[in-house]
């Protein structure tokens, strides 16, 4: 097996392809994009390679529809899925995407059983369950991309409001990747100073609300389509943490077994990302209202998982 | 592209030029009074450019005139501290030279933002500001940022996490009496005390407080210079790109934190004009007490050195 690190991305739509681009720029791994549309995927890979001489990355980038190409990957990212179409109800979408994710997950079992799997397809927390069940991978090797994205949006909104450097702002967001996510203002800081000391409560509330609706704000502007730069950048951040064993403490969706009083559920919590995937789940002491919000968010995710179970027998 | 003048091509001055080049931030002119030294080091750095892929220029000279028109001037010309040396004694040796340099900066680069890395940081930073007679926001000393990066490193090592998400602010003099703001020491927003325990965090703070001495003892003949140079390059980046990063710097206070008339380490947003704004954070009672004691000592040292020689 090659000694070079390898990242595969299943689904070469906007999120998948842009993630491939960000990862290429980091020059940390060979890249494979897999998509049912073979020509489009090959074209995107070739286009990226043509830009390499100027951008200074020199990693191989392959575009293919053949799952066998993911063999030996250290990390596999599942971005495949369809956006909701007009007239489609939530459950229809869930079923279609669950099928797609299940197929991708089985390919990972077949070709890259030692990979760390990063799930991006929506509804995120539920698709993590589908991926975990279909792969039969170790629990700590399946991680959902959500908290880093929600936190990067929160960080941007704080920096924009204060007119300070993005790099000085750190943020924490817990819970499911949806309206019921739990942004944590007391753990969101400028250089370590909580934003609750830097702005009034009404402003904090406004930024929290904008964070919760961050994805929807982009959808409303684009009309046809959803965000992909920030999601792809979040994927690249996670991939880098795994490949380089960076031990990056950040919020991601992980499978909980009793942590935070939540069992048998994927939900966003702070964790340490490294070579083995989830290296450690960090259990924060929560205030009562924060705990209630997290449990409410968990209940919403659990409802989705149970709905899905009525259509799919767990494998 | 902005131009940076660095005065002093010792380890700190040269490595600052090195980090600026690697950041691809700006063109650098490195000046040293010893003929040939700055020229040699600049040439060495430029010859590394093709493989390191930077294309900014680094020029060396022994003539201070070469910094004329610089956007930022970094003062790194002074001797380093000896083990156990009092800041008053070090000041006596470094101040005369720096006073002359500051007068030249006023003539050659009157619009520059000036960064001081000469020790004792706070006293020399004040001397530079007074000699230049410019807006206090435009004279910054590298002090707290260095201690900040050290506590961030130590916390990341103790927890086995990446240092990039670790924050930590330090205020007060660049001296063992500096005050670490415990609540600001966090990982991705999570207070380090909750992850490490209060006792372990206290140990790491003491380690960071004496980190400069530790390096001096290990390296014997030289003081640390990579971390100080990196701190200076970070300030340069914030100024050149006007990022308004929140960084602890030594700057002359006029009422902030109850301090007046001396330069001391405080958290500040740093941008194109130097200090954009000093951020006043509520201190805990022990922090307030420690800060006031350290400030009083610095005032006393300032008074002593300012007194005419007998």
Structural overview:
The complex is a heterodimer of chains A (315) and B (310). Chain A is α/β, with parallel strands linked by helices and 315 residues long. Chain A has nine helices and 14 strands. Chain A has two domains: 6-144, NAD(P)-binding Rossmann-like Domain (Rossmann fold), CATH 3.40.50; 147-309, L-2-Hydroxyisocaproate Dehydrogenase, Chain A, domain 2 (Alpha-Beta Complex), CATH 3.90.110.10. Chain A has helices at residues 14-26, 38-55, 90-111, 124-135, 147-162, 201-212, 214-222, 229-243, 288-309; strands at 6-10, 30-34, 61-64, 75-78, 116-119, 142-144, 169-170, 173-174, 182-183, 189-190, 193-194, 248-257, 263-274, 277-281. In chain A, helix 3 links the parallel strand 4 and strand 5 (116-119). In chain A, helix 3 (90-111) runs parallel beside helix 4 (124-135), helix 5 (147-162) packs across helix 6 and helix 5 (147-162) packs across helix 8 (229-243). The two termini of chain A are 30 Å apart. In chain A, 51% of the residues are buried. The mean pLDDT of chain A is 94. With 310 residues, chain B is α/β, with parallel strands linked by helices. Chain B has two domains: 3-141, NAD(P)-binding Rossmann-like Domain (Rossmann fold), CATH 3.40.50.720; 144-305, Alpha-Beta Complex (L-2-Hydroxyisocaproate Dehydrogenase, Chain A, domain 2). Chain B has ten helices and twelve strands. Chain B has helices at 11-23, 37-52, 87-108, 121-132, 144-159, 192-196, 198-209, 211-219, 226-240, 285-306, and strands at 3-7, 27-31, 58-61, 72-75, 113-116, 139-141, 166-171, 179-187, 190-191, 245-254, 260-271, 274-278. Chain B has a six-stranded parallel β-sheet with strand order 3-2-1-4-5-6, with helices on both faces. A three-stranded antiparallel β-sheet of chain B has the order 7-8-9. In chain B, strands 10-11-12 form a three-stranded antiparallel β-sheet. In chain B, strand 2, helix 2 and strand 3 (58-61) form a beta-alpha-beta unit. Chain B is globular and about 50 Å long. The termini of chain B are far apart.
């Amino acid at each position: 097996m090659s000694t070079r690190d390898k990242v595969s991305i299943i689904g070469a739509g906007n999120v998948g392809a842009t993630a491939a681009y960000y990862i290429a720029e980091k020059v940390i791994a060979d890249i494979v994009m897999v998509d049912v549309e073979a020509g489009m995927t090959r074209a995107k890979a070739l286009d990226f390679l043509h830009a390499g001489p100027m951008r200074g990355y020199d990693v191989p980038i392959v575009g293919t529809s053949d799952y066998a190409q993911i063999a030996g990957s250290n990390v596999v990212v599942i971005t495949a899925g369809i956006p909701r179409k007009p007239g489609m109800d939530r459950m229809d979408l869930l079923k279609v995407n669950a099928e797609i994710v299940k197929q991708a997950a089985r390919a990972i079992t077949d070709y890259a059983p030692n990979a760390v799997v990063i799930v991006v397809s929506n509804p995120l927390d539920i698709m993590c369950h589908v991926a975990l069940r279909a792969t039969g991978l170790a629990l700590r090797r399946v991680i959902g991309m959500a908290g880093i994205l929600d936190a990067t949006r929160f960080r941007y909104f704080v920096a924009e409001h204060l007119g300070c450097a993005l790099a000085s702002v750190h943020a924490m967001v817990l819970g499911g990747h949806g309206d019921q996510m739990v942004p944590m203002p007391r753990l969101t800081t400028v250089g370590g100073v909580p934003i609750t000391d830097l702005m009034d409560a009404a402003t904090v509330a406004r930024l929290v609300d904008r964070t919760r609706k961050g994805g929807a704000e982009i959808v409303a502007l684009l009309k046809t389509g959803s965000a992909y730069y920030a999601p792809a950048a979040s994927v690249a951040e996670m991939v880098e943490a795994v490949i380089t064993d960076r031990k990056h403490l950040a919020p991601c969706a992980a499978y909980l077994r009793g942590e935070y009083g939540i069992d048998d559920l994927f939900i966003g919590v702070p964790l340490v990302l490294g070579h083995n995937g989830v290296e450690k789940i960090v259990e924060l002491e929560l205030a009562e209202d924060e705990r209630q919000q997290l449990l409410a968010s968990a209940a919403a995710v659990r409802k989705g998982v149970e709905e899905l179970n009525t259509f799919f027998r767990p494998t | 592209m902005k131009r940076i003048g660095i005065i002093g091509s010792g380890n700190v001055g040269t490595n600052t030029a090195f980090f600026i080049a690697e950041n691809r931030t700006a063109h650098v002119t490195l000046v040293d009074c010893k003929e040939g030294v700055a020229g040699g080091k600049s040439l060495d750095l430029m010859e590394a450019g093709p493989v390191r892929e930077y294309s900014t220029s680094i020029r060396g000279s022994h003539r201070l005139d070469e910094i004329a028109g610089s956007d930022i001037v970094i003062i790194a010309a002074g001797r380093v501290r000896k083990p156990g040396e009092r800041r008053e004694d070090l000041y006596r040796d470094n101040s005369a030279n720096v006073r002359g340099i500051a007068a030249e900066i006023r003539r050659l680069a009157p619009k520059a933002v000036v960064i001081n890395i000469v020790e004792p940081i706070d006293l020399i930073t004040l001397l530079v500001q007074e000699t230049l007679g410019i807006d206090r926001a435009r004279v910054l000393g590298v002090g707290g940022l260095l201690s900040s990066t050290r506590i961030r490193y130590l916390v990341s090592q103790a927890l086995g996490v990446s240092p990039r998400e670790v924050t930590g602010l330090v205020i007060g003099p660049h001296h063992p009496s500096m005050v670490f703001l415990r609540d600001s020491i966090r990982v991705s927003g999570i207070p380090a005390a909750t992850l490490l325990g209060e006792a372990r965090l206290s140990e790491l703070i003491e380690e960071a407080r004496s980190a400069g001495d530790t390096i001096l003892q290990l390296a014997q003949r030289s003081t640390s210079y990579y971390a100080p140079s990196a701190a200076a390059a970070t300030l340069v980046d914030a100024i050149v790109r006007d990022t308004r990063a929140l960084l602890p710097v030594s700057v002359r206070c006029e009422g902030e934190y109850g301090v007046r008339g001396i330069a001391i380490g405080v958290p500040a947003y740093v941008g194109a004009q130097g200090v954009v704004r000093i951020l006043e954070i509520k201190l805990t009672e022990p922090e307030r007490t420690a800060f006031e004691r350290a400030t009083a000592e610095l005032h006393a040292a300032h008074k002593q050195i300012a007194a005419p020689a007998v």
